[in-house]
Specification:
mainly beta
């Protein structure tokens, strides 16, 4: 479903962002994302949180030469308990930034993977089948994070195989890019996508990446392969025990659309606060919210709010508040988004939000008055 943007002003102070059409019952900060931790002996554990109340775990125990996986529901307070296949239990607690868990008699902390990185356009979980030329196949999953790490798990009967390693991806050359750069297409087969041309009007502007990866399996074997990502699908070719397999799977992550809404007003106190309301529906969204003051001055705005500050609320609950964007723990991600305020005294937050109704309230430090601009952006890299 495509996102719909509507702007409603009440006086000079209120704007509403509607993503989709239906208003949900309540909102909360999202826990969704990839969380990675280390096990003793060089092993890894990866948690994939898809929605605030659903979690999957992938365990790569190199010391025991055992891979396993499982899923479970997450309670409102973040607690979970799951049983992995073929054997094992994991208990823990999820917060928006880390997961603490007990696995294989170890206490493990898994941190949320940084949002921006070399492979953020390809990040996510991909589920599908790995098929050999002989026709044999098995269920498999690949998980790719934004920092170039890749994880693989597959089930062959009652046996779970898996491993982890690194990948290098880069934008793939396209026929459109070649023509734009003045190149010539010598062979019509050069513009094929996959095995055949499905539509001569296919959107060549869609993200298309290719790359290579190397995975060390829990058995100690190394498998190196190639991958191709386009239109939300991953194709990977790699060997297992001397047999070449081709994997095709869809990306499991929210389909985001970059949306921005903003409103400007003269900020005072009490009823003169600048209020921006927005509603999210259709899945968790990564949003950047900022309030500008001094940045507006070069554009002829006067008098500007010299030191704006804001808080983000859902109902009566304050979810986040900020006075200076550089004070955020994820200030580096705010910079990477390309939307960091120009002035250090201006506030901004970058966070995931579950479906719900939210309100930003902008005031001036020390009850100062002036003109401010509050903006909400939806970030694509999620």
């Amino acid at each position: 479903m495509n996102s719909t943007l509507q702007l409603i002003k009440k006086g000079a102070y209120v704007c509403t962002l509607l993503i989709a059409l239906a208003a949900p019952g309540y909102g909360e900060q999202s826990r969704r994302g990839l969380f990675e931790g280390s096990l003793a002996g060089g092993g890894k554990i990866v948690f994939f949180v898809q929605g605030n109340h659903a979690i999957s775990a992938y365990v790569f125990n190199t010391a025991a030469h055992q891979a396993s996986f499982g899923g479970a529901a997450v309670a409102d307070d973040g607690a979970f308990a799951l049983t992995t296949f073929p054997a094992g239990t994991i208990t823990g607690h999820v917060t928006p930034n880390l997961i603490s868990a007990t696995v294989a008699a170890q206490n493990v902390t898994a941190s949320r993977v940084q949002i921006f990185g070399a492979s953020d356009d390809v990040g996510g979980r991909f589920s599908g089948n790995a098929v050999a030329s002989s026709g044999s196949s098995f269920d498999a999953r690949f998980l790719v994070d934004s920092q170039g790490r890749i994880f693989f798990v597959g089930t062959q009967g009652s046996t779970v195989i898996g491993g982890f390693g690194t990948t290098t991806v880069h934008p793939a050359a396209t026929a459109k890019a070649a023509m734009t750069q003045g190149g010539e297409i010598e062979n019509e087969n050069e513009i094929e996508h996959g095995d055949e041309i499905e539509d001569e009007h296919e959107d060549d502007s869609a993200p298309h990446f290719s790359g290579v990866f190397t995975i060390t399996l829990i058995t100690g074997q190394t498998s190196s392969g190639t991958l191709d990502f386009s239109h939300g699908r991953l194709t990977a070719t790699f060997p297992i025990n001397g047999v070449s397999f081709t994997f095709r799977g869809g990306q499991e992550s929210s389909e985001n659309h970059l949306i921005n809404v903003s409103t400007r007003g003269f900020v005072t106190t009490g009823q003169g606060q600048l209020i921006g309301g927005f509603i999210i529906s259709g899945g968790p969204k990564l949003v950047l919210i900022r309030a500008l003051g001094p940045t507006l001055a070069p554009f002829g705005v006067s008098p500007v709010l010299a030191d704006p500050q804001f808080r983000l609320v859902e109902g009566q609950t304050v979810l986040a508040q900020n006075d200076s964007w550089r004070s955020n723990a994820n200030a580096g991600d705010i910079v990477a988004s390309g939307l960091s305020p120009r002035n250090a005294s201006e506030p901004a937050v970058l966070l995931r939000l579950e479906p719900g109704a939210y309100t930003t309230v902008v005031t001036g430090a020390n009850n100062a008055a002036g003109i401010s601009l509050v903006e909400v952006y939806e970030i694509e890299h999620d």
